[in-house]
DNA sequence: ATTCCTTTGCTGGATAAACAACACATTCCT
DNA sequence: AGGAATGTGTTGTTTATCCAGCAAAGGAAT
């Protein structure tokens, strides 16, 4: 991975930040490229230099976070169970604006919730294969189990974010870990 | 005044902000250009593109604020007495980091306090000439009066900043205005 | 429908900033 | 003392961004 020019990092950061802020203020289709470039303090043409349009910007933003999550969980699956959840929730906390915006906005990112859910489902599927020797869930449909826990997970995350993250990542991760271990 | 390129504004802002932050963390002579460029997230050579060295940076930063103050007070001297003081104190409040740092740092900006004092002295001198018909201060040396009020003014500002601006600009301006009117 | 206004992609030329490299000075260390 | 590290000021080249301006598409108002 060759390192990228400082300038592109700075402008992309500015654009993404501006876009997220705007997503929190108005609906996706009401946001113009002009809005974004103004907020980001960047020339309008510069936005086109990096993204095809606002849909592309949204896609790349989502893709980026999904990838970061994949990296993080690959790196984290070597440590303890509960600790891994905690690390992920710390990531959610650090990017709370992104996740709460994306999970909240029904009209804007209908794709995100399902993409995110798919990612979580894959994660649990792998996890289930690794720990399927414990006799629990004998005779139960694997798909049902995975979807059960994945939806539970996402739902808890969603309400935690919506409520403004009332408890620290450690405690929510611990509680969630206890519940998940009863299933898996 | 032709408008300047967005890029130079952004980098100059970043550099000045970084420099001010560093001034609050360590002594002036311990600050390197490398520190500044790192903090500003800017290439080192870019700093040299705008400033000769850190002394020049400091000078320009001071000069800039003095000029802004001159503009502000020229614009403000058409309104009420006390209101003008309030506007200036709002400026101090908005740039509290700069003023508290500069007034505090003995070793770094020994020049600033005197420059600033000179500016205040000039302001009061003009003010005195405009309102010298009121019979107060008959037979008193003008220079003494001006230096008296200027030092009082700067001293009050200094401690207000040092104490973390406990009262809002309005009230400090009003109190200061009452005291100054007893003299001028 | 026609007008008016905003937004959209896109261009081309100018320029700020990045980056890497230099020779030299300074501090640090041990 | 002497070598390593760090900081300085400057250069040349490359690249990202700016900015002004375009024609076209769409919406809203009259």
Can you characterise this structure?
The structure is a homodimer of 184-residue chains. In chain A, 75% of the residues lie in helices and 0% in strands. The mean pLDDT of chain A is 90. By secondary structure, chain A is mainly α. The two termini of chain A are 37 Å apart. Chain A has 2 domains: 1-51, Arc Repressor Mutant, subunit A, CATH 1.10.10; 62-183, Tetracycline Repressor, domain 2 (Orthogonal Bundle). Chain A is built from 9 helices and no strands. In chain A, α1 (6-25) crosses α2 and α2 packs across α3 (44-50). At the A-B interface, loops of A face loops of B. The structure holds a DNA duplex (30 and 30 nucleotides).
CATH superfamily of the largest domain in chain A: Tetracycline Repressor, domain 2
The number of helices of chain A is: 9
What do we call the CATH topology of the largest domain in chain A? Tetracycline Repressor, domain 2
Structural class of chain A: mainly alpha
Biggest sheet statistics of chain A: none
Total number of domains of chain A: 2
The portion of residues assigned to helices of chain A is over 70%
Order of helices and strands of chain A: HHHHHHHHH
User: Which chains have the largest interface?
Assistant: A-B, 5 and 5 residues
**CATH-defined architecture of the largest domain in chain A:** Orthogonal Bundle
Would you identify the regions of chain A where 5 or more consecutive residues have pLDDT less than 50? none
Strand content of chain A: under 5%
Mean pLDDT of chain A: 90
Radius of gyration of chain A: 19 Å
Q: Strand tally of chain A, please?
A: 0
